[in-house]
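Co-fold these.
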Amino acid sequence: MLKTLWLRLGAFLGKLLLWLVALGLLAWALSSAWYVWQHRGPVSAQELIPDGEAAMTQDVIQTAVRIVDQHRESTRYLRDAHAKAHGCVKAEVQVLAELPSELRQGVFSEPGKTWQATMRLSNGNAYPQFDSIRDARGMAIKLLDVPGKQLLTDQPGRGEQDFVMFSHPNFFVSDVAEYRQNVAAQADGKKIMAFFPGWDPRSWQVRHLFIALATLTPAPPSPTQTTYFSVSPYKFGEANAKFRVMPDPENCPVYSLAEQNRNLPNFLRSALNQQLSTDRVPACFVLQIQRQDANKYMPIEDTSIEWKESDVPFETVARINVPAQDFDTPALNLQCDNQSFNPWFGIEAHRPIGGINRLRKAVYEAVSDYRHARNGGQ
Ligand code: HEM
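Predicted complex below.
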């Protein structure tokens, strides 16, 4: 009797399990189909500015300044993001000599031209921490002596074109509204809960939480050995495009970096120093662009969406050479800290577009002014 009861219970539980698996598979298939349906082209090739963006931007500035205050060092105010530099190095950006005519845009108009540039390599975190901690890594490049009208009309004499990137292709928020909510929660000390703003499951940002986790990666062996993405889109002449900078060791002398001691807090600086200053070996990269095909799902207003390479591949427009040099001196490091990079330092042909870039216009300037004023105007 007891045996039959056990057998029936076993059969019932087995069936229940099968049903649960089948239901789970169905839910997964339906949500995948819904995701593909939601994320399909065509998309707009124009910017679409939502109502209330300007007010939300002001809120973000206040939060950003709060973060700068929270994380100031004993003597200096640091950046709100990418506070820790591995170094600022001199670089040469050479436009490809054989560039097809449709790729000759803005600073890439003249095939073969070499721009002198400054490159700042950084960790993404808002305050300096050990390089071995999972993080995004940043690269900011500033081309110097760029002719033409600057985007920021109050700084006409700047003559720069900046490219500001980090080491992941998409961002953990879609737009300004979500950034405002998420960063305010983070400034209040929330981490994972910043992605769950309320009880309503429709407000839960599970996919974005996974993007945030994937952005925080273990450190590469050196800042010269990882790929950096613009994440957000820019004009590229008449087209819209994202860009990236990728290591290109084939165009540099053969070099194998000695293994660094990852327990040292600043081993990425040591790696850069070892290659450029001690071993006197240059580093090489390619600068590539990916043009928007508005028939594909390549949106302008959602930075959480990676533009797939299978939709449109990246094309190389320039090579970057970082020559052997001594960059790690107190004077050059202070100069590096005092530099400002901003996607809006540039010319019309490379205008930043999309909500997150419109937000960055106000925030970078406000934070840069704030920290410079508190650092004695330096
Ligand atoms: C598209 C995604 C983004 C990328 C690729 C990116 C990348 C970077 C990088 C590499 C830096 C360091 C620049 C340097 O070396 O001086 C930086 C700084 C900074 N970022 Fe972003 N960022 C992004 C989005 C944002 C957003 C949405 C905000 C806030 C609205 C923001 C606020 C800042 C601020 C305030 C600084 C410091 C500016 C300064 O004090 O000079 N970033 N970002």
